[in-house]
Amino acid sequence: MLEIDIFFIISLLLFFTGFISGILAGLFGIGGGILIVPVIYHLFNFLDFSENISMHMAIGTSLATIILASLNSVIEHKKRSCVDISLLDKWKYTILFGSLIGAILAQLIEGKVLIIFFAFFSFFVGLRMFFTKPYSIKTYNFLKSIQKIISFLISTVSSLLGIGGGTLSVPLLLSCGRNMKTAVGTSSGIGFFISLPAALIFLLAGLNVEDRPQYSIGFISVIPFFLITLGTFVSVPMGVKIMHNFNDILIRRFFCVLILISALKMLRDLIV
């Protein structure tokens, strides 16, 4: 009876995580990985899996859920003409290549190192976005000239950490003069191109790893994937609707606070 109650509570937690992640995907274009990774990591730690297994399972499962969440989000934003299709077309091949490189690098790095990297990265991005202002025309032109290099770096870091890229691409697009709605919609498309090849690498890399959780395929845990995806499917359209009815600056501030809280929580757990 106790085991059934725990399973029910965990199932609700995962569905709720997906529900919130779907709102975040629609609202901020981030795919939800910045929330999904910590939740799954702490869940597997609670179930007494090693830190290394827990972090790699968290990243792999997060990337798998982001595939459908970001695709759903970009479709909803496209209906409102808030996706920069030309930018996605220019970036698609470098994003795919960078995603593969990042996912391969993640297999060579210990779980604890990934945790530290993820936490400090999230904290830096949150602060940078909170205080960011549009760049000058000169800086904007420079960024535009190296946009393929930037897209490669964004996808590499994002697949390494199991996120959809929005924590990097949204601030960059804002700094280059895009409005929040277009930045979010375009970021959702970037998340799809990042997560698809990266999730495949995590799936293949974990096939022969021992001591993985039951009902997992490689480094993708099937039950969390299903429940989180179900939650995102329900809530992504809600997030998109909220995005198009709220003030850009207010949404940006909420986004920053969310990132900072998540980063501080992971750093605290490493210290305690």
Report the portion of residues in β strands: under 5%
DSSP helix fraction: over 70%
The strand count comes to 2
Give the termini separation.
Answer: 32 Å
Number of H- or I-type helical stretches: 11
Alpha-carbon Rg, integer: 17 Å
Number of domains: 1
What's the overall average pLDDT, rounded?
80
Helix/strand order: HHHHHHHHHEEHH
Question: Which structural class do you get from the secondary structure elements?
Answer: mainly alpha
| Low-pLDDT residue intervals, each spanning 5 or more residues | none
Strand order of the largest sheet: 1-2
Major sheet characteristics: 2 strands, antiparallel
List keywords for this structure.
11 helices, globular, single chain, about 270 residues, mainly alpha, 2 strands, about 0% strand
Structure description:
- The protein has 272 residues and is mainly alpha-helical.
- The protein has helices at 2-28, 33-46, 51-79, 85-106, 111-131, 137-145, 147-161, 166-175, 180-205, 222-243, 248-271; strands at 216-217, 220-221.
- A hairpin with a 2-residue loop joins strand 1 and strand 2.
- Helices cover 81% and strands 1% of the residues.
Helices and strands in order:
Blueprint: H1 2-28, H2 33-46, H3 51-79, H4 85-106, H5 111-131, H6 137-145, H7 147-161, H8 166-175, H9 180-205, E1 216-217, E2 220-221, H10 222-243, H11 248-271
Antiparallel strand pairs: 1-2
